[in-house]
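DATA CLASS: polypeptide
GOAL: derive structure tokens

***
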Amino acid sequence: ARDKYFDIRQVAGQPAALVSSLVAGSRLERGGDLLYRDYDFQPAAAASLCADNLVDGLLVVLMSEIERVETRRDRIPVNYLEAPYRSVQVRAFVVLSDGRVAWSFPAGGSWTFLDLQYPDFDEAHYNRTDRVWVKDISLEGVERALAEGADPKKSGPAGLPEVYADLFDDIVSGLAPLLDGLL
């Protein structure tokens, strides 16, 4: 029986420089009713990064802002607003040393990391109007959302802010079938 070995390690480098060398291009795609960004990878850069770091593939997690039409509901579920909203979306890929994508998350879409806008149903209610305005979440609100649930006393995933922990849990769950096939 052949022994199998699996290792995960961080690739050192400046994130912006790694992305600019590894990503060959991106385009907007449609998955059902949702718009998301898809990516192509540079085979030579993937080969170089894999060789330099002694790995067979790269887990690449990309975040981008996108505006797409979504339906958002009020606290009273019967009220909703279908409108364009901006949000930070995530795509993750396992890129092999030849530049091919072995796995993507989520398949055929993107994962909402953080909403940047919201419908102000309360303002419409108190102003006695049906006109619901879409408003930006403040910088302070974004910072609080990104820090929520963080526990600096804990190390590793247990100490991560909730939004990051949820993202990594979903990526790991999605990777599990791929890893089972490798191990």
In short: The longest helix spans residues 162-182. The chain has five helices and eight strands. The CA atoms of residues 33 and 69 lie 8 Å apart. Residues 15-182 form one domain.
